[in-house]
Amino acid sequence: MKHRIMTAFIEEIHLNGMKFTMDDLAKRLGISKRTLYEHFDAKVDILDAIIDQSIADRNEITDRIIQDENLTLIEKIRGVITVLPIHWEFYDLRILDQMKRYYPQQWSKVDTELTDDWNALRLLITEAIEQKEMLDINVSLIMKLIIDGTNSTLDQRFYQENQITVSEALLSIVDILLYGLIPENKR
Q1: Which of 23, 33, 44, 169 is most open to solvent, judged by the fewest CB atoms within 10 Å of its CB?
Q2: Residues 6+ away with beta carbon under 8 Å from 77
Q3: Model confidence over 133-146: pLDDT tens digits?
Q4: Which pTM was predicted?
Q5: Per CATH, which fold does 1-41 belong to?
């Protein structure tokens, strides 16, 4: 039921913005407000649950990729960059702007997750450079390019208008960053 509530919460945000009420959410779910309150005490609790679950999900998937001995170092880097957590549709610029205004504490947590230096990825890239599998370019610059590139998917309206899924966009962004725009046979 909690997952269903979180999904409905995101749907409500997409349709009506952050200012909807718990009554609106209960109606969307077809349950009583009392039933809703049995699972969450307030909207902010649902928001916290979505954020926490998304972060935990992303970390769990990242750890599995890193531990997978069947993947090459470059495949691990590509995999870590393209991890899409559960509730990825929540990570939209319009939602984040509203969250910044109405729920600054929660926004700060999301912003940190999106913009901080992703340590696991940094370690993989450093290892790839040391093993001469990547060019020896400043790791902080590489990290900035990757973080900025992947965070461009937060502009979900652009991708929807251009009929590109977020997953496809992430894969293309990573391929451009890792392999460039020039086909290998033309280099």
Answers
A1: 23
A2: 121, 124, 125, 128, 178
A3: 999 999 999 999 99
A4: 0.86
A5: Arc Repressor Mutant, subunit A (1.10.10)
